């Protein structure tokens, strides 16, 4: 029987990690796209080898890790190179995420993907859950958390699907503008719903 997968997403600063960790507290396995993306370019990984072969040693730090800033610089202004990089890494990330889902033993799996809709990964999940907050709160939280300026935050927000687009595509929505206790109640209610949907209730 195939695993029931919930795709968890939301804009930057919306509180995806907080929500994911509340599901983890219920014993649910998390498969995090950001962590997988780091793993596929770790020293010794095939992803990093191919990137080095393509761009040269300039994209490596002295310790052999990927120099993300240098790579970002190389691909940001060159659409062709960015496309090459995405075509290399996206299938690797997708395959590793599905491998982790398959080996999970919890009743269902939460796949945490910041760009779930943008990268078409919603096709891999049975249900989508969007963590929603107002754009004002999004900016405020991100500026505080990442110590970045408002212009940078606006650029990131503008590069993601709009709030309206995410909400239109969501099967479930968590409003994360209130207290943590309210958030915990919302997660528990969804947990019961997903157990039921996965046939494990």
TrEMBL record:
SUPFAM superfamilies the UniProt entry points to: P-loop containing nucleoside triphosphate hydrolases
Localization, UniProt: Cytoplasm
Keywords: ATP-binding, Coenzyme A biosynthesis, Cytoplasm, Kinase, Nucleotide-binding, Transferase
One example GO MF annotation: ATP binding
Highest taxon of the lineage: Bacteria
UniProt key word Nucleotide-binding: yes
Pathway annotation: Cofactor biosynthesis; coenzyme A biosynthesis; CoA from (R)-pantothenate: step 5/5
Any single Pfam family the record assigns to this protein: CoaE
Function: Catalyzes the phosphorylation of the 3'-hydroxyl group of dephosphocoenzyme A to form coenzyme A.
Protein name as it appears in the record: Dephospho-CoA kinase
Lineage: Bacteria, Pseudomonadati, Pseudomonadota, Gammaproteobacteria, Alteromonadales
